[in-house]
Amino acid sequence: MKLFIALIALLSLGAGAGVYFFYPTGEFAWMDAPYKNYKKTRSRLNYKAIAIDRGAKKHGQALSFPGPEAAMEQALYNCRKKARNCELYALGDEIIVGMDALAIKNLIEPYWNRHATRIFSSPWKGETFSGSDITAALAGMSAYGITRNGLRTTTMWGRTGSLKSDVLNNFARPPRKDSGKWWVQGDQLCRQYMSWYAGQKLCGALRRDGDDFLIYGKNQELLVIFKQVGD
């Protein structure tokens, strides 16, 4: 949740620049070709964003992420590999540079709702991890995910088996978060939170389809889709 709050604060950097709803013009004309290519991109997850450094005329983008917040954070991360003063430029197909933080925040849920219902009905497949490969893949990973019941989460998979998760689209006060542990049992990934899922042990297969990680339940039902943020 702290990552998301910091992210929203960054959105206001572009305030006062003017908002362009179709294609880049004027100060942002250099983004015309990158934006057109970006806008054509479609994927199963379909949440995407662009960040720019207007002075350096550099940009970074994030395509096919599990939720708007994940796409925005990754776009900023990719931009900062090339330049220092990065700000968000587009969320989905809408150019948002120049909007204030509240206006952008108000775009997140409608954007989420446009695509969320079809994510778990997509034909996910992927390679199933063995036990040792699960540990190597997850230890130390910071990830954004989506659950089958429609929650967007951030999760830190600790190197020593700790597990910390926040819910981004649950507006309870205080915001929902929990901690617990994860481990490998045979060729299954096991998780257990302090209070979520009534503290039950949850074990199932871990698969990878491209850059997306998939957690399955006992009956081979897809429960969680998540993706690493960063490299």
Features:
four-stranded antiparallel beta sheet; Lipocalin; alpha+beta; 231 residues; ten-stranded antiparallel beta sheet
Could you walk me through the main structural features you see in this protein, from its secondary elements to its overall organization?
It is a single chain. This protein is an alpha+beta fold and 231 residues long. The protein is built from five helices and 14 strands. The strands form two sheets. The protein has a ten-stranded antiparallel β-sheet with strand order 5-12-13-14-6-7-8-9-10-11. Strands 2-1-3-4 form a four-stranded antiparallel β-sheet. The longest helix is centred in the middle third of the chain and has 15 residues, at 101-115. Residues 9-21 have low confidence and may be disordered.
Strand elements, count = 14
Count of discrete alpha- or pi-helical segments spanning 4 or more residues: 5
Shape: elongated
Q: Which series of helices and strands comes N to C?
A: HHEEHEEHEHEEEEEEEEE
In the predicted model, the low-confidence regions spanning at least 5 consecutive residues are 9-21
Total tally of structural domains: 2
Quote the average pLDDT. Answer: 89
Helix content: 10-25%
Radius of gyration: 18 Å
**Terminal Cα separation, in Å?**
20 Å
Instruction: Report the portion of residues in β strands.
Output: 25-35%
Q: Structural class, judged by helices and strands?
A: alpha+beta
Q: Let me know the largest β-sheet.
A: 10 strands, antiparallel
- Walk across the major sheet and give the strand order: 5-12-13-14-6-7-8-9-10-11
